[in-house]
Design brief:
Keywords: Hydrolase. It comes from Fusarium falciforme. This is Alpha/beta hydrolase fold-3 domain-containing protein. With about 325 residues, the chain is an alpha/beta fold. The chain has a single domain (about 5-320), classed as Rossmann fold (3-Layer(aba) Sandwich), CATH 3.40.50.1820. It is built from 10 helices and 8 strands. The protein has helices at about 5-15, 25-40, 95-105, 125-140, 140-145, 160-170, 210, 220-230, 265-280, 305-320, and strands at about 50-60, 60-70, 75-85, 110-115, 145-155, 185-190, 255-265, 285-295. The chain has an 8-stranded mixed beta sheet with strand order 1-2-4-3-5-6-7-8, sandwiched between helices. The longest helix is centred in the last third of the chain and has 19 residues, at about 305-320. The radius of gyration is 18 Å and the shape is globular. The chain starts with 6 loop residues before the first helix and ends with a helix. The mean pLDDT is about 95.
Length: about 325
Amino acid sequence: MSRSYAKSWLEVEETMGVRPVLRGNAEETRGQFDGLISMLEPQYPAPPTTVRAEDGTIDAIKYRIFTPAAAKQGISLPLGVYYHPGGFVIGKSFTDDVLCRTIAEKTGSIVVSVEYRLAPEHKAPAQLEDALKTLEWAYDNATQLGGDPKKIYTIGTSAGAGLAICVARKVALGQSQVGLDVIKGVVALAPYTLHNRYIPEAYRSTHQSYVENRDGVPMIDLASLDAFFDDASLDPKDEDYFAALDQDHHKLLPPTYVATCGIDPLRDDGKVLAESLKTSGVSVKTDHYDGLPHCFWVFPGLPESQTFMENTVNGAKWILGKM
């Protein structure tokens, strides 16, 4: 299939000498991801001194908390709970260190990045359980962290973006230990919201990215998604994990910011969810990156990566403005 890639992305591939894609079993994809990050690491800027990072654990769940250095004693800050990408198979609490630091610095938020349990060692619902437990902990400890328990939002990328939405849904349905309205917003970056083995009739006319970006695309393809979801033993009809399925309760979700990538099998996962939320009366803000693959912003040399960072900060600020 002919695709129109951004010129900047093709230059990245030319420099690398390969089209990067994460595919294979868990051990293989983890190795591929580690190799990619090791190659890119020298290109990342030094961590800003304007944000403090501290590691901790909640029972066995590791986390890293990012706090703006300018935070003043007695001033409560918004608190974002961040879920990393990696198909539930890859990733750590520091995987998106730059993104979390940027959000913390530019929005004046405290950001807690969660190292949830990974598949295939831990099957579903382990990831969602850890994601929800950390949200509950953040709410219970918001004051001690310097955060405002009335200004909590979830953030995530890819698999983590799906978790950010699913946690908000669980809370809104009363399936948590916190109040129904505790989560005030969601920042969902290239989210998964469906399984390609089950697309409800309501979405079939508009969801085409599983076909259009099935294979031959960078970063992840349909085989990657299948492997990730199978490693977690996910049921394609599980409304707890696939947020676009439960349309009846979309009206309960808080204001949501959604970013999508043009050359990404998950492109329409984000788009159909955003449209369903809008139809349900939820405030939605979106950004779309045409000609670019899933999670392109991990490549710091791309000019669009800077645009993505700016837009994500603005998306988070938009959420904060709704509180």
